[in-house]
Amino acid sequence: MSTGAASTNLKIGIVGFGNFAQFLAKTIIKQGHSLTATSRSDYSQICLNLGVSFYKDVEAFLEADNDVVMICTSILSMSEVMKPMPLHCLQRPTLFVDVLSVKEFPKNFLLQVLPEESDVLCAHPMFGPESGKNGWKDLTFKSNRSFSRLFWFAVLVLKKEEGCRMLEMSCEEHDKMAAKSQFLTHTIGRILSEMEIKSTPVNTKGFETLIQLKENTTKDSFDLYSGLFLRNRFAKQELENLELAFKKVKQKLLDRMIDVQDIDDVPLSQRVE
């Protein structure tokens, strides 16, 4: 793969062709790159409509001479999908780009199973089909610092063409931040869903924001949410922090309740204003 101008067309393969992969594919195709895809489910008709070559046979997919292979599986299924792949069928040293919402786990796993001559770029588009439906300009795309040719791919496909805001950080740093942001956001949304909150005639703007949070987070599968927990080693601590914070707030309210009850028990004639 050369480091030429941004007009260079790439052959990009996608492993896992669900909603997010389809969302990415539309933009990548628009830029003039050619796409192949493979998935455990049959997406042949969707691929046909998009102009993507779909391979049911994983070996044929790996022999398709892709410059880049993007891993768009679910977080929990990545190892199950990648382990049995006949990676010896790759026709050249290949760049593998994972776009999962956690970063340490896929990096460590891919470095174990990929051929030594392959490169790995761990990336996380901080947007999806909803937030990116009107374009990717100024949206954040996180990637780990790596070889210059890998960044050439990221800059080519995302920054120069789509105007994404690029952030470089380690996979560990990403997962620490994501546990405090993305995982907590999804957790609060799931809690609100369990509470079955609904719109009322006296909604405040804040409550409408909570309803929107519930609806946005529950659009994603519980499989995705549990992956944010099970594959991010920092998530458990944030879950415990959330529980502790709730207990502290609850105790403050109970303490105030006791104070108010003590005041209410004092006869009006004896109260000091």
From TrEMBL:
Q: Where in the numbering of this chain does the Prephenate/arogenate dehydrogenase domain appear?
A: 10-273
Keywords of the record = Oxidoreductase
InterPro entries membership: NAD(P)-bd_dom_sf, PDH_N, Prephen_DH, TYRAAT1/2, TYRAAT2_C
GO BP term, example: tyrosine biosynthetic process
Record keywords: Lipoprotein included? no
One annotated GO molecular function: prephenate dehydrogenase (NAD+) activity
> Which Gene3D superfamilies does this entry report, sorted A to Z?
NAD(P)-binding Rossmann-like Domain (3.40.50.720)
PROSITE patterns found in the cross-reference section? PDH_ADH
Please tell me whether the keyword Oxidoreductase is annotated for this protein.
yes
| Top-rank taxon | Eukaryota
Q: Which Pfam families match?
A: PDH_N, TYRAAT1_C
Q: What is this protein called?
A: Prephenate/arogenate dehydrogenase domain-containing protein
Its source organism is: Ficus carica (Common fig)
